[in-house]
Specification:
single chain; 161 residues; alpha+beta; Protein Transport Mog1p, Chain A; seven-stranded antiparallel β-sheet; 5 helices; 7 strands; globular
Length: 161
Amino acid sequence: MKKLFVVVLALVAIGYGLWHLGLIGRAWGSDPCKLLTKQDAEAALGGAVDGPHTKAVKSWKSCGYRGQGDMESVTLNMEVRDPCADLTDIADPSIIRGGTQLSGIGDEAVASSMSFVNAIYVRKKNVCFYVIATDYDARRSPPIPAAQLRNLAQTAATRLP
């Protein structure tokens, strides 16, 4: 009986490790560029984009695009954290408290806007992400309309299991 318990415990640990690494159980494969595609970015920025640019640091993975032509100063990024317990895992609590609560996107969502940056923070089950638009030349405030950013966040959330 003790041997069976040890075997079951080992299988659970292996399964959790494979799930945490994104090797099993994640339809989106733990790839943020499957949540925010190049086509999504092109539609939001109104033309061709440079990217995707990806990065992985500890429990974060990101996917980003940069506009071209008239929108060359605008970037659109998504960062994903999995697992995550609540939105304060991906943003400062003051941003979450001071943001606008949104319904219909994941299990919880908050929009935040500051001058030339607008963002939406989302939690769906145990995955958190944010999609953020930034205008580095400070010519557009907000960089893209709030409705477009909301659509991007909503689309990304529907791509999560």
